[in-house]
Write a structure and sequence with these properties.
- The strands form 9 sheets. Strands 21, 23, 24, 25, 26 and 27 form a 6-stranded mixed sheet that branches.
- It is built from 10 helices and 27 strands.
- The chain folds into 4 domains: about 230 residues; about 100 residues, no CATH class; about 80 residues, Sandwich (Immunoglobulin-like), CATH 2.60.40; about 100 residues.
- The termini are far apart.
- A hairpin with a 5-residue loop joins strand 25 and strand 26.
- It is rod-shaped and about 155 Å long.
- It is about 30% helix and about 30% strand.
- Helix 2 runs parallel beside helix 8, helix 3 runs antiparallel to helix 8 and helix 5 packs parallel to helix 8.
Length: about 525
């Protein structure tokens, strides 16, 4: 396409050399430079294939490898010669300090030597419209004739590499240096037809086109040589049966599924495996987001990924890169896995009791399911999630059934447990820390409260005394005083002070209110002997 644009622009020059046409040549030249760079990058990948194949069978590959690198040497030298011609023309028109030129190491030869020239920013060329100086360099000074001889030598060398007629045809067309015909049918030399009486920018563009043609012809031969050693084929030399299962842990009621496949690989060529996020460029092309982390690939055609992460959800993703004559081809992979806590569940079968009126903490786990995927239900009460636990609140004595479940691979998996439901036992009423026994009269009369405490009960519950009676027997008569809270009243204390030594002070008819807000009467009485 770029070559066709060049021909159209050249034809238009005969009509008018306008600024727009000159700028169009700049655009075409930029495109040709980028195309040449792409060809060169692909060719470098192809040369790397030869080095890989040398490690497999040097006797077979070496003759073709030597041919390929002889092509590389000639192509590099010819491309550099074309670049030097462009630089010479720019300097001839714009001076040795032309602003469009910047020094660069064009390439490094096989022996490590640097081949230096200049890059050209064609936008900055001043003498784009000069119609004479390009022709002076290429025709009058004979540089075009020398270039023609180099192209022909390169062409003949390429043709000697193969007998493939299609490759011969392509190379002869792209590196054609035959005479050209003018409008009146007169034959002119190739260099005159390409470079004479056209603007300097058109001469630069023509030289860029020839650089692209050189790299294209180089690619044709290199691919042909690779094909002759079979390097363009997808080869395998090892095969292995592999079982791929969704999981090695299956719950009762679920199916165990596995794929049994034949894996084939080339043990002599190791791909690159890069771990990390990647992006889809479309058309089957992918690239890493960032550099990625390379995973070692062993001689058995496998790369083993190992990780010991904490609890959570993770992805194993990246690209497997296989070197081909066209460069690295990327194959994406993605797997997700989950790391959970290792748990041991121990149940005391005779202690499966829930109490009414309190929060009963419950632990529910379903094998193979994360905690956030578990659902729970309950009969004779309600159950709600509280962090990593569940809270059960039964409503009436008897039994309650709690069920835990989760959906795994499309199936609901779970189980249930039956609990006994009981009322919270009564607290124990105490005065001065005692439920009975002897207390000195003055110590007993100094007490302020009657308290109700839970004894040997696992829940941290508080009961409040709401009413109680103090009874004392004096002179054969019983006297009683009532308190309507947990505080011992002054009247009750007066009864205590009037008790005789050895007499009984009884705290009875005790009412308490629990955390559920309900009031109950204790069967217990506190009997204290006055000391």
């Amino acid at each position: 396409m770029i070559g066709m644009m060049y021909l159209v622009l050249t034809a238009m020059l005969a009509l008018n050399v306008s600024a727009d046409i000159l700028n169009a040549f700049v655009l075409v030249d930029n495109g040709l430079v980028k195309t040449t760079a792409n060809f060169q990058a692909k060719n470098e990948s192809a040369y790397a294939i030869f080095e890989v194949e040398m490690g497999k069978s040097e006797a077979k590959v070496k003759p073709f490898r030597d041919k390929a690198f002889s092509v590389k040497d000639m192509a590099d030298e010819l491309a550099l010669h074309l670049q030097d011609l462009k630089v010479e023309i720019v300097k001839y028109c714009d001076g040795d300090d032309a602003p469009s030129l910047s020094p660069v190491d064009w390439f490094i030869g096989e022996k490590g030597e640097k081949k230096s020239t200049y890059n050209i920013d064609d936008v900055l060329i001043k003498s784009k419209d000069n119609l004479d100086k390009g022709g002076e360099i290429m025709v009058v000074k004979g540089k075009g004739k020398v270039l023609k001889e180099k192209i022909e030598a390169f062409r003949e060398h390429l043709l000697s590499m193969t007998d493939d007629p299609s490759v011969h045809k392509a190379i002869k067309e792209s590196l054609n240096t035959d005479q050209m015909s003018t409008k009146d049918g007169t034959k002119i030399e190739w260099e005159s037809g390409c470079f004479e009486h056209i603007p300097m920018i058109a001469v630069i563009t023509m030289l860029s086109k020839l650089q692209s043609d050189v790299r294209n012809a180089e690619a044709d031969i290199i691919q042909n040589l690779l094909a002759q050693i079979g390097a363009t084929d997808t080869k395998v030399n090892k095969m292995e049966a592999i079982v791929q299962a969704k999981t090695s842990y299956v719950l009762k009621g679920n199916e165990y599924q596995a794929r049994i496949i034949l894996a084939a690989y080339d043990s002599l060529q190791k791909p690159r495996i890069l771990l990390g996020p990647y992006r889809n460029l479309g058309g089957g092309n992918y690239e890493m987001v960032g550099a990625g982390t390379e995973l070692p690939y062993d001689a058995r055609g496998k790369a083993i990924y190992k990780s010991s992460p904490g609890v959570g959800n993770y992805k194993l993703e990246g690209l497997l890169q296989m070197l081909t004559p066209e460069g690295y081809k990327n194959f994406p992979f993605l797997a997700e896995y989950q790391v959970g806590e290792s748990q041991t569940v121990i149940s005391a079968l005779k202690m499966n009791v829930l109490y009414i009126g309190v929060d009963n903490p419950i632990s529910i786990s379903v094998s193979g399911a994360p905690s956030n995927a578990i659902q729970a239900s309950m009969t004779n009460g309600t159950i709600t999630k509280n962090g990593n636990e569940w809270i059960a609140r039964p409503t009436s004595p008897g039994t309650a059934v709690i069920r835990g479940s989760a959906t795994i691979e499309g199936k609901s998996i779970g189980g249930d447990m039956t609990y006994r439901v009981k009322t919270v036992p009564d607290p124990v009423a105490k005065v001065g820390g005692k439920t009975s026994g002897k207390i000195a009269k003055d110590v007993l009369a100094a007490q302020t409260f009657l308290v109700a405490e839970m004894v040997n009960f696992d829940f941290d519950l508080r009961f409040e005394v709401t009413k109680f009676t103090v009874s004392v027997t004096r002179g054969g008569f019983a006297e009683s005083k009532i308190a309507n809270n947990n505080r011992i009243t002054e009247e009750q204390k007066a009864l205590i002070r009037g008790a005789t030594k050895g007499g009984k002070v009884i705290f009875e008819e005790i009412f308490v209110k629990g955390p559920d807000g309900k009031t109950r009467q204790l069967e217990q009485s506190v009997v204290i002997t006055v000391d």
